[in-house]
Amino acid sequence: MSDEEVSPKKSPLKLILLIVVALAVLGGGGAGTLWYLKKRQAAKAAAEAAAAQAATQAEAAPGEPGPAEANSDDCEGAGDGKEAGGHGGAEASPVMVLTRTVNLTGPRRNAFLRCELNILFCDAELGKLVSGDKPSPEKSLIQSIILGALSGKSVEEASDAESREALRQEMKDKLNEQFRPHPPKPGEKEDPKHKKPKRPIKSVLIVDWAIQQ
Questions:
Q1: Tens digits of per-residue pLDDT, 39-53?
Q2: CA 148 to CA 177: how far, in whole Å?
Q3: Which of 67, 158, 49, 69 is nearest to 114 (CA)?
Q4: Contact 196, 107 (CB under 8 A)
């Protein structure tokens, strides 16, 4: 038998082997590509879900300020200069000045704190009502809340800067809780021209803080 007769029989076998190897390579590559695409889609979906969750958490409940908003000393709509006492030709927000002397707990019985507080308002109407000399229920409420927050403090608490800052924020939060506007009743519509700020109190400033023992 000559070589010319053998070679035609071997050629189909080599061709079959080449086809099998090619299919195996292509099949592996296709599976790898499919796995990569699925992984990429899963990562994209997870990123979108995380972004949506972060956006949901960042939104405060209707009518309630978020943590960052509650700790801020800015008023809603401060850009228009109306309620915040801006310089764009609007009337400055009134300031209520409170001077209080309270006893402090501690080893010495005669220790006391004398402080002066300036209360700034986002609600200009409320500020005018309580900053004058005339008595009013709102003014009495503010005085009572401030006195309650100051009472019962120890000499150590009054001397600590962090405790003093926490007390300042506590007084602001309690005042805003007391005077925040109530949502309209069912069937009522809020007048945009007379809309009250969610946080009537802009800030509580400590301008004098003296401890005597």
A1: 566 666 766 766 666
A2: 15
A3: 158
A4: no
